[in-house]
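Re: weekly structure request thread

Next one in the queue (344 aa):
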Amino acid sequence: MSETRRKIMRVLDGETLSPPPIWLMRQAGRYLPEYKETRAKAGSFLELCYSPDHAVEVTLQPIRRYNFDAAILFSDILVIPDAMRRNVRFTEGHGPEMDPIDEAGILRLDGMGVVDYLEPVFETVRRLRAELPEETTLLGFCGAPWTVATYMIAGHGTPDQAPARLFAYKHPKAFERLLMLLADVSADYLVRQIDAGADAVQIFDSWAGVLGEKEFEAFAVRPVARMISSVKARRPQARIIAFAKGAGYLLKTYRQKTGADAIGLDWSVPLGFAAELQKEGPVQGNLDPMRLVAGGKALEEGIDDILAHLGSGPLIFNLGHGITPQADPENVHLLVERVRRSGN
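Done, posted below.
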């Protein structure tokens, strides 16, 4: 079977499939007991990301359970700053932390050796493509420059990423340098994932929603457009999903300005607006993860609404953000079954 027959790749090329293909952000994760077992064996979270044996195993776990139409590489968006020697660590109960970077530190940064440092990730991708069912799309990914930069500036996540926003206003040249360097390194990283066997890749801009209109253009659109242009110049066959969480109305021109093949939608995007966006090309999303936790009628109605509004166009069914740890694995089964029955 050629990759063009993989359902998600067909949708990324503009086809409408009924039922739509489905995968879920964070489908390998803490809601699964088998993930928790593997995570305990691996040691630290970064050791899990950098161990091909463990990373392959946790990537495959949700495929075995649910037969999703795509497997997404198990890794983290912060492997890029880790490869830049920013001392990234994950502390239980605190989330990611790293050494915060200042203006002088940005001027000293370069991209030398960053992608080579991530060779274990590419080994994971190679093994996954060899082990996955032929019909399953393999997705690679990275963080968008803005979102990665917010963690690098503050040294941790914050409620509204105010430290990065303030830094960008006070040190615009240094901040632009950081974004462009992250864009170039991340593009190289995606190309290497594609070369290792990823069918398509997703760019996660998880903090796009905290930006004003001008800042969204400068910090979210321009760096992602630079990345996508760079990847497609070298790998014209590459298919790229861009997910700018919380961007709302600014998504109206996001696909056109960035060159993304598909745009991911969070759960706050109105389905009428999503249908307008879909006229321009494939969309992915956008079930509220809390409906998956709630189950029952809330889950059923959420699924049915999305299918009613978006099922007649190119759609990849997904959540509007990642699965939360409290999700019941049985509700995921119900979700997959209901979506797949919709085509009958």
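The chain is about 50% helix and 10% strand. The CA atoms of residues 135 and 218 lie 38 Å apart.
Next request, please.
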